[in-house]
Structure formats: C-alpha cells, structure tokens
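Quick illustration, no need to memorize.
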Amino acid sequence: MKLSIVTTLYYSAPYITEFYHRATKAAASYCDDNYEIIFVNDGSPDNSLDLAIELAEQDSHVDVIDLSRNFGHHQAILTGLAHSKGDEVFLIDSDLEEEPEWLADFANEKTKASCDVIFGVQKSRKGGWFEKFSGWFFYKVYDAFTGFDFQKNLITARLMSRRYLNSLLLHDEREIALGGLYYITGYQQKPYYITKHDTSDSTYSFRSKLSLLVNSIASFSSKPLVSIFFLGLIVLSLSILISLYFTINVLLFGAPPSGWTSLIVSVWALGGLIISCIGIVGFYVSKIYSETKQRPKTIIRHIYNGKDNA
C-alpha cells in the first residue's frame, strides 16, 4: 500500500464528513486507489464514532479503530500509526485546522529534500496571548531541561516514511511524550512552515499542558534530579557559612544570635524546599511505577472497515 492517512477523533463530529471527503480527494490525487484512511476514536463523548463507522461501511479505504475509553491524544496516535500499512504515512488532526490538501505539498517537499520526515510547523502560533505565552514557556523550559534543539510550534501534521515509522514504533514506553520520541528517533527530518487555522477550541486544558510539560521533561531528562543534588550542596554551604558567622560573632563579640522571625522563615523555606525536592523525585518514581507494570498503551474495543466490518 502506498499511503496511510491517520487521524484521531475526540469531539470531532462536526468535521468528520468534510475531513473524509477532502482527505479522500488528496489521497486519490497522490496515489490513485492505493491508500487507506484510519480513524482512531479516542473515547469521544459525541457521535464521532457513529459517523466514522458510516464512512467505513461505505468505503473500503476507511478503517475505524474504536478504543475502549479515552487514553489520550498521543496514545491514540501511536495506535493508529501501528495499525497503518502504507509505505508513507500522513498523520494529521481531523478538526480541519490542518488541511488534508497539505499532503501534496509535504510529499513534494519530502521528494525534493530526499528525507524521511516532513513535519508541519506554525509560522506564527495561533490563539490569544495566553496560548502563545504558554507555548513559548513550554519550549523554553523543555529545551532548558532536555538540551534538545527542539523545533518550536510543532503541529500534528507530518508525512513519514515506513522505515522511520517502524523505528518510531520501537519505543515501548507507557508514559508517552510524542514530540521527544519524534526527535530522538532520528533520521533526516525537515520542517514545513504553514499557517494553522483556528476552527475549534483546544481540547488541551492548562492542566493538560502542564502535565504534558512535566511528563516530557521526566521522559527525556534527569536534570531535575541532578539539580536537587546541587541545590542540596548550595543549602549545605550556606548553612555552614551562617554557622561560622554566628560562631565567630559569639566568640569575638559575645553576642548570641537572636530573632525568631529569621528562624521561622528559615524553617518554612527549608521545609518548602524539601517538599519540592521530594515531589520531583516522586515524578520519576511514578514514571518507573507506571513503566514497570507494562500495561497496554491502549485497548482496542473494535475495528470497523468497509471490507468485512470486523
């Protein structure tokens, strides 16, 4: 099979039909009849699944993977990619903020650059000031802790070769941060700059974005743990210097240290520091706990397709 188009569904009902028609037209123009379109229903609460099943019953090119519940965007993506059979795989969101017609542009760029991956990058991040600031903050913190030269303002859309995808799927971790996995898989990857549309509200809340940041850092960097060690050295050094100061002050001037305020502030500051450090260690312990259980990334309830509706 020449091409697989993979997308996920979550509150996607208003866009599925138009996405399907546009994706079908783009795929047929690129490789005639030699393609498949894979919808992964990530426990969408609306009628996205019903609409996708109707398309699968009408078109043998369409497969619908229905997950048993909502597992998360990145997990759903990897499930769809693992199910794909194409020599090239075009991953894209189904909400039409990313255009299915980009397939031709991505393919032309991939051929010109003779590379394995063309990935989409926003020329200017969409959204209001908070979304732009939170995106800037995410990449700044992520780069600082991981040391990656990470491409800013990535989008979901990307065209991948089969050999790259097979290598990407070798990563078997449960706590998934796809941006980092894309990067460390290697091969020759080239950005393609686009303007992303604003058709719907993001399903990523601030809490989700913060959780993604913490998970991404913990997945690809041990710097927070190393920072705790050096922070402990700094606190120890300061306490030794302060102790020496008070000792000399008592021996030379006979003035004992005083001040309940400074004592209470010190106790609270050190207490907060200790709790924060324990929390950082806790993030890593929780990841180890999650990985060692070896639970499946997702559970597939049913796969629908137009050939046998299996």
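The chain is about 55% helix and 15% strand.
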